[in-house]
Amino acid sequence: MKKLFLLTAVAVMGLSAKAQEFRFGPKAGFAMSTIKVDEKQDDLGKRNMDPKYTFYIGGMAEYKINDNFGFQAEVLYSPLGAKEKIDGVNAGVMFVGEQTKVTYGTLLFPVSAKYFITEGFSVAAGANFGVILSAKQKTVIGSDLISVDVTDGESSGEVDIKKQTKSLNIAPFVGVEYMLENGLFFDARYSLGVSNLSNDGSGGKVTNSFAQVGVGFKFGGN
């Protein structure tokens, strides 16, 4: 009986070890970022800025506890933000408007739980913890013929707005992933910004949401 119990225990441990799997690797891709502004003390009210198309790059680590469930953690960098174009009025011979671009240099720490529908296809839900390392804004007034940079920054024309921007951007996300047998994978996710990034004391709210589509490679596994 003791021998049978010992053999059973060894077999169970072997199956558990086989089910556990650790993988890691690089990932990069395309991001579409938007900013939503709620100006409580402004006649503009709520408005959504136009998307900014940018990139992300970094690495990931995945721990699969059994055939269906796992966890994943990542470290990514992405220059998120948005842009906005405001039409102006006819000033003599040209149509004058205003264009503003906001860029948040963000270090992202996504953490998620994953459910594997098949060995290669999974869905995930979690949260992005973004640390905003830099915040820049560039505003240009003009038309297609003449434009004037109205920012007072350096030669690049950008002004630093880091003091007016909070450092933490928390964004819950959902996503999907498909991995080939050789470790190459493709994923897509959407992160909804819930943190108020405005630090100017006006009572308004600024949130940053973003979608990501990318590719990566996983090393390790059984």
TrEMBL record:
InterPro entries: Beta-barrel_OMP_2, OMP/PagP_B-barrel. Residues 1-19 form the signal peptide. Keywords: Signal. Gene3D superfamilies: 2.40.160.20. Pfam families: OMP_b-brl_2. Residues 19-198 form the Outer membrane protein beta-barrel domain. This is PorT family protein. It comes from Chryseobacterium indicum.
